[in-house]
Amino acid sequence: MAEQRGLSRRRALLGAAGLAGAGAATLASCSDDGSKPPAGAPRDVVAFHGPQQAGVSTAAQDRLAFAAFDVSAGVTRDELRDLLRIWTDAASRMAAGEPVSDVESAPQSPPRDTGEALGLSAANLTITFGVGPSLFDDRFGLSARRPAALADIPAMPRDELEPDRGGGDLCIQACADDPQVAFHAVRNLRRLAQGTAVLRWFQLGFGRTSTTSSAQQTPRNLMGFKDGTNNIKREDTKSLATHVWVGPDTDQAWMRGGTYVVTRRIRMLLEAWDRDFLADQEDVFGRRKDTGAPLGAETEFDPVPLAAKGEDGAQVIPADAHIRLAAPATNGGITLLRRGYSYTDGVDQQTGQLDAGLFFIAFQRDPRTGFVPVQRRLAQSDALNEYIRHTSSALFAVPPGVSATGGDYWARGLFA
Ligand SMILES: C=CC1=C(C)c2cc3[nH]c(cc4nc(cc5[nH]c(cc1n2)c(C)c5CCC(=O)O)C(CCC(=O)O)=C4C)c(C)c3C=C
Ligand SMILES: [Fe+2]
C-alpha cells in the first residue's frame, strides 16, 4: 500500500474520536505510583496526567521497551507538533488500558489498534517522552529553545559506542509489568508516526535493576548483585526536587518541572565475570553478594562505611570499588535517579559470547553536573570496568507532565 504522509493519514489510523483524549476522568482519581490506587480506581493503572511525566519517579515496573526516533526529512514544525498531539492522546489511552482508538475498525482498512494488548490489563504501563539534542538543529526553528543542559554527552574513556544504537531526535520509554503491553505501546506509537518519524534504535529490557519506591524489594542485576539499594525513592520528594526535577533556575521555561534522561547500553562480559572468585566480585562492587550489605556492615541498608579500615590498615571498601566511586559522598553530593533494566540481545556472532548486560537509565536535573562527572570518574578507575563495555549513549530532555484538560500535549511549551 502506498504510504500517505501527514496528519490526515494518522487521523485515519486513530479515528477522529480517538483524538478526543482518553480516560482522563478515570485516571484523575488514580494514584500515580501504580501500587496503591484508591478504592474504585481501575487496577494496574498508573496515572498518565500530572505535573510530571509518569515513568520517572513512579514505581519501576518489570519490563522496558525504549525507542528513539528521528524526524523524517521534509517534516515541518507543524507536522512535528501534530505528531506530539496524536502521540500524547494515544499514550494516555494505552496507559488507561484502552486501545489507541475507540473507533471501530472498518473491514476494508487496517485495524486502528494492532491488537496484541486487547484483553490484557494496563500492567502499570507508563509512557515517557523526551527530545534529543539533534531536534534543536535548524530544521524546526527550535535552536533558541535548546536548554544548555541538553548538551551532547562527551566521549568517555573506554567508550565502545555503536552510533546506530544511540542518539535520536525523540524518545519513548514504555515500562510495564507485562512485556507485551510495553511492546504494544511503542509499536503503536511508531505506527502513528509513519511518514513523520522513523525508528532509530529500539531496546527491550527485562528485570528492573532499581527500586524507585521504598515499597519495592531490591532486584538483582545479571551479575547477581542487588542493584538499586542506594537509589532515590519516590517518597523522598526533597531529593527528587533537588536532584531530579528541573527547577525555576532553568534557562528554558518549557523544561521547568521536567528532567533529563541518560541511557547507556552497558554490555557485561558475563563469561569472564562468572569465572571470577566471589571475594573479588564483592570487592568490585564493595557489597556482599548474598545480602547486599556494604562490606564492613551488617545489612543491606546500613550506611556504607567508606572510612572503615581493616586490621591491615587497608580500606574495607576498596579504593576502586564501584559504590565508593559512584557514591554521592565522594562526588560532591551528585545523586542520580537510576531506573535501568537488564537486557539480552542473544549471541555476539563474532565471539560466541552472550550479548547481555544493563540498559542503564538515569534521570537528573542536569547531566553536565550529574551523569557526566560520575561516569568520567567511573570510566577512569572503577574495578567494574574489567567486566563491562559501554556500547551506546543517548540523552533526552524529558518535559514536564501533561494536564488532563485544555488540549495539553507532550512538550507543548517548546512550541509556545
Ligand atoms: C554513571 C553512573 C553509573 C553507572 C554507569 C553505573 C553502572 C553500573 N552499576 C552497576 C551495579 C551497581 N551499582 C550500584 C550502585 C551505584 N551505581 C551508581 C552509578 C552508576 N552505575 C550509583 C550512583 C550507585 C549508588 C552508590 C551509593 O550511593 O552507594 C550497586 C550497589 C547497589 C545500589 O546501591 O544500587 C550495584 C550492584 C552495574 C552492574 C553497572 C554497569 C553494568
Ligand atoms: Fe552502579
From TrEMBL:
<dbReference type="InterPro" id="IPR048328">
    <property type="entry name" value="Dyp_perox_C"/>
</dbReference>
<dbReference type="GO" id="GO:0005829">
    <property type="term" value="C:cytosol"/>
</dbReference>
<keyword id="KW-0575">Peroxidase</keyword>
<dbReference type="InterPro" id="IPR011008">
    <property type="entry name" value="Dimeric_a/b-barrel"/>
</dbReference>
<comment type="function">
    <text>Involved in the recovery of exogenous heme iron. Extracts iron from heme while preserving the protoporphyrin ring intact.</text>
</comment>
<dbReference type="InterPro" id="IPR006311">
    <property type="entry name" value="TAT_signal"/>
</dbReference>
<keyword id="KW-0732">Signal</keyword>
<dbReference type="GO" id="GO:0046872">
    <property type="term" value="F:metal ion binding"/>
</dbReference>
<keyword id="KW-0456">Lyase</keyword>
<keyword id="KW-0408">Iron</keyword>
<feature type="region of interest" description="Disordered">
    <location>
        <begin position="96"/>
        <end position="117"/>
    </location>
</feature>
<dbReference type="GO" id="GO:0004325">
    <property type="term" value="F:ferrochelatase activity"/>
</dbReference>
<dbReference type="Pfam" id="PF04261">
    <property type="entry name" value="Dyp_perox_N"/>
</dbReference>
<feature type="domain" description="Dyp-type peroxidase C-terminal">
    <location>
        <begin position="218"/>
        <end position="402"/>
    </location>
</feature>
<protein>
    <recommendedName>
        <fullName>Deferrochelatase</fullName>
        <ecNumber>1.11.1.-</ecNumber>
    </recommendedName>
</protein>
<keyword id="KW-0349">Heme</keyword>
<dbReference type="GO" id="GO:0004601">
    <property type="term" value="F:peroxidase activity"/>
</dbReference>
<dbReference type="GO" id="GO:0020037">
    <property type="term" value="F:heme binding"/>
</dbReference>
<dbReference type="Pfam" id="PF20628">
    <property type="entry name" value="Dyp_perox_C"/>
</dbReference>
<dbReference type="InterPro" id="IPR006313">
    <property type="entry name" value="EfeB/EfeN"/>
</dbReference>
<keyword id="KW-0560">Oxidoreductase</keyword>
<dbReference type="InterPro" id="IPR006314">
    <property type="entry name" value="Dyp_peroxidase"/>
</dbReference>
<dbReference type="InterPro" id="IPR048327">
    <property type="entry name" value="Dyp_perox_N"/>
</dbReference>
<dbReference type="GO" id="GO:0030313">
    <property type="term" value="C:cell envelope"/>
</dbReference>
<keyword id="KW-0479">Metal-binding</keyword>
<dbReference type="GO" id="GO:0033212">
    <property type="term" value="P:iron import into cell"/>
</dbReference>
<feature type="domain" description="Dyp-type peroxidase N-terminal">
    <location>
        <begin position="53"/>
        <end position="206"/>
    </location>
</feature>
<comment type="similarity">
    <text>Belongs to the DyP-type peroxidase family.</text>
</comment>
